[in-house]
Specification:
With 181 residues, chain A is α+β, with helices and mostly antiparallel strands. Chain A has seven helices and five strands; from the N terminus they run βαααααβαβββα. Chain B has 592 residues and is an alpha/beta fold. Chain B folds into four domains: 90 residues, Ubiquitin-like (UB roll) (Roll); 79 residues, 2-Layer Sandwich (Alpha-Beta Plaits); 133 residues, Rossmann fold, CATH 3.40.50; 214 residues, Fe-only Hydrogenase (Larger Subunit), Chain L, domain 3. Chain B contains 18 helices and 18 strands.
């Protein structure tokens, strides 16, 4: 496994998953305060917010739009442009299968189909127990490792259909531990 | 200065010019589509591709700055073929029901295809999913016709600072729409229609009231009266091929008669009435301020422009108490038609249909506001844009150009020159100051032709001041006082003024805001295409109309004096408040 993201955002992500929207507004305002006035502040603010909440609820997007003084339509334009962003709650773990050209031709499509079959959900959906969400990505910049699957911040390289169960195991074990506690 | 060669011609232009501007300066036309004069070039449509010697690829003329010694070919085979491919690709995704499209007459895509000699589209395939959005009162969006040029996005965010529309989703699924492709009705849109005014195709149009109006005209039970806004007379001729700035007041009146309206009246009458009410309101606020030291509702903002009212309700609720409570002339007219005129003409207001002809799409929204029913009925029933009236006249088989000049009916058709200039930026302010000065000093404005030079022209924000001296007894507290005024057109400029007065609350006493660039003559419902040259031509016609009138101050209008004597009593009377004034309400800035 390779860690691409910083430790900080990961810890926020796992520890604050159950935060309520009104609780995070002050946190988001802090993030915005650091970025306000900077050109190109929207995407970092959206990323931090999604790391905090797991997804981007529309009321939060409206709040961000007003605070950054960027039209809501433009904020939504950015959110709908990047597959990384989601406006619906995600599962505890987000699985992203790269559908960039390199990954696609080296079996990414088959890996996606296998994951979809295994989890019994389609792209953009979340398993009934809220444990996994399935997404597609457009190139993670790791084409040499194709096909690539990201689970949260972990990058899994040269994934084969036959390895799917094995790949999901560590995340499922964690579910078992939670159930026991 | 920069020296370059375009199509073999030597060109000298300033260093910060684009290739497009350089070509234009020597009379070379490069076709464009997304480009809008005066705004930041986007380079979105790729129609203006030209060849630059030494460059591996073609470049977009609208966004590429000139360079010393550049050698450009705008008409090479490579450039022509590239443009053709771009336009063919646009056509391949465009829903081309050209025979039925309301833009068939002035569609810029069709015109481009013609100019580029495109006789077939070589690319056929799947069309992106489309949505017809009829949710809004004033505007219809048809994404099947949208070619994603983003002019509407630019005008909505850059000029109007509303930002209702933007590109949503990605790649093939990109659509120009409100956030998340939600319905227009569900988001904050001020309904100004500038998007419809700049759309090159039929993707954004006004909601048509033509059928409703025809139905009313066909019904012998209905007494159908029509009012025309001041800006119509300076633009309607364009629907019939006349050059911008041709005054067609008389022909317009005759055409409306031919169409079968029972009375042809003038919004101008109500504009004069507005000056009486709004001017008195300003003087009252000034009196409270100077004598009692307690009036905080200054500066007073004008209220004629419904897009501005929508904008203030959503974006600047803190100034709502400063906006004049006067209804717009359209709505004052409706209320007077269904009360005063109904009595005079002995018509049951239930059987009266009031039709407006407006340069505006937001007027369609204003007419159905719940506050606008003070006659006991909806005061204005239907609103046609200038374009719709043009269509209606054509549908009626009326030979507009050959019509003789007609006269407006009395009494709601009589007006002064002060009412005409409601059509252009600075005009409402000038009209108000003409009357305020005359009422407080007993003398007319001393300036030439009664104009206030500093308020004329297309500058986004204009300011002026008038010092009141030699005041009559009743207004002696204003002696020597300087009334400072500001004028803004385009909502982005209006926002700048509102932000400025937050820090300088006492600087101005009266502020005029018109939603559309140039004022109503540049409204979202005017004939296409409105450039600054067209705006200036229309404004010229309006001033000509004003200067040609024997009476040029609203309070001199005998029909206005009569309506106060017979019906309203005096400005700001109980009855005036009931019929001619309104209220505003704070709304969410972003309505999801």
């Amino acid at each position: 496994m390779t860690h691409l993201a910083t430790q900080q955002s990961e810890s926020v992500m796992s520890s604050n998953r159950e935060l309520k929207i009104e609780d995070v507004i002050p946190v988001i305002d802090d993030i915005i305060a650091q970025k306000r006035g900077e050109r190109g502040s929207l995407i970092p603010v959206l990323q931090s917010t999604q790391n905090l909440l797991g997804y981007l609820p529309k009321p939060i997007l409206i709040h961000i739009s007003e605070k950054l003084e960027i039209p809501y339509s433009e904020v939504a334009g950015v959110v709908t442009f990047y597959s990384f962003f989601s406006t619906t709650p995600r599962g505890k773990h987000t699985i992203r299968v790269c559908m960039g050209t390199a990954c696609y031709v080296r079996g990414g499509k088959e890996v996606l189909a296998a994951l979809s079959k295994e989890l019994k959900i389609g792209v953009g959906e979340t398993t009934e127990d809220g444990h996994f969400s399935l997404e597609v990505g457009r190139c993670f910049g790791a084409c040499g490792l194709a096909p690539v699957v990201m689970v949260d911040e972990d990058v899994h390289q040269r994934v084969k259909e036959s390895q799917i169960k094995h790949l999901l195991e560590p995340y499922l074990e964690e579910r078992g531990e939670e159930d026991e506690s | 200065m920069c020296k370059l060669t375009i199509n073999g011609k030597q060109v000298n232009v300033s260093d910060n010019s684009t290739i497009l501007e350089a070509a234009k300066s020597v009379g070379i036309k490069i076709p464009t589509l997304c480009y809008l004069e005066g705004l930041t070039p986007m380079g979105a449509c790729r129609v203006c591709m030209v060849e630059v010697e030494g460059r591996a690829t073609l470049v977009a003329a609208c966004t590429t700055p000139v360079q010393e010694e550049m050698v450009i070919h705008t008409n090479s085979r490579k450039a022509r073929e590239s443009r053709k491919v771009v336009v063919e690709l646009l056509l391949s995704e465009h829903e081309g029901d050209c025979q039925l499209c309301e833009r068939s007459d002035d569609c810029e895509l069709r015109q481009l295809a013609l100019e580029l000699g495109i006789r077939e589209v070589r690319y056929q395939g799947e069309k992106p999913p489309a949505m017809l959005d009829t949710s809004s009162v004033a505007l219809i969006r048809d994404s099947a016709k949208c070619i994603k040029c983003r002019r509407c996005v630019q005008v909505c965010s850059e000029v109007q600072r509303v930002g209702a529309l933007s590109a949503q989703f990605r790649g093939y699924h990109t659509t120009i729409a409100p956030a998340f492709n939600d319905a227009l009705e569900s988001i904050t849109c001020v309904q100004c229609g500038q998007c419809a005014a700049v759309c090159p195709v039929g993707a954004i149009i006004e909601t048509s009231h033509i059928e409703f109006v025809l139905k009313a005209l066909d019904n012998p039970q209905k007494h159908v009266v029509v009012q025309t806004a001041p800006a119509i007379r300076a633009a309607l001729g364009e629907c019939f091929g006349l050059p911008p700035g041709t005054l067609v007041t008389g022909k317009m009146v005759s055409a409306l008669r031919e169409l079968g309206f029972d009375a042809v009246f003038d919004t101008n009458f109500a504009a004069d009435l507005t000056i009486m009410e709004e001017g008195t309101e300003l003087l009252t606020r000034l009196r409270n301020h100077f004598i009692l030291g307690q009036e905080t509702r200054l500066p007073q903002f004008t209220s004629c422009s419904p897009g501005w009212i929508n904008y203030a309700e959503h974006y600047f609720p803190e100034i709502l108490d400063k906006i004049s409570t006067c209804k717009s002339p359209q709505q004052m007219f409706g209320a007077m038609a269904k009360t005063y005129y109904a009595q005079k003409a002995n018509v049951d207001p239930a059987d009266m249909v009031v039709v407006s002809v407006m340069p505006c799409t937001a007027k369609k929204f204003e007419a159905v506001r719940p506050e606008m029913r003070s006659s006991g009925y909806q005061d204005v029933d239907y609103v046609l844009t200038t374009r719709e009236l043009g269509d209606l006249i054509k549908m009626g088989g009326v030979d507009f150009i050959a019509l003789p000049d007609g006269e407006m009916d009395s009494p709601l058709g009589l007006s002064t020159g002060a009412a005409d200039i409601f059509a252009n930026t600075g005009g409402v302010m000038e009209a108000a100051l003409r009357t305020v000065h005359a009422v407080t000093t007993g003398r007319s404005l001393a300036s030439e032709d009664l104009h206030i030079e500093a308020l004329a022209g297309l500058e986004g924000v204009k300011t002026a001041s008038v010092t009141l001296s030699g005041t009559v007894d009743a207004w002696s507290f204003l002696e020597g006082k300087e009334v400072k005024v500001a004028v803004a057109h385009g909502l982005g400029n209006a926002a700048s003024v509102v932000e400025y007065i937050r820090d300088h609350p006492a600087e101005f006493q009266f502020i005029e805001v018109m939603t559309c660039p140039g004022g109503c003559i540049g409204g979202g419902g005017q004939p296409r295409f409105t450039t600054d040259a067209v705006r200036l031509a229309r404004i010229g016609a309006i001033y000509q109309e004003d200067e040609g009138k024997p009476l040029r101050q609203s309070h001199d209008n005998p029909a206005i004096q009569q309506i106060y004597a017979e019906f309203l009593e005096k400005p700001l009377s109980h009855k005036s408040h009931e019929l001619l004034h309104t209220t505003y309400a704070k709304k969410e800035k972003v309505t999801p």
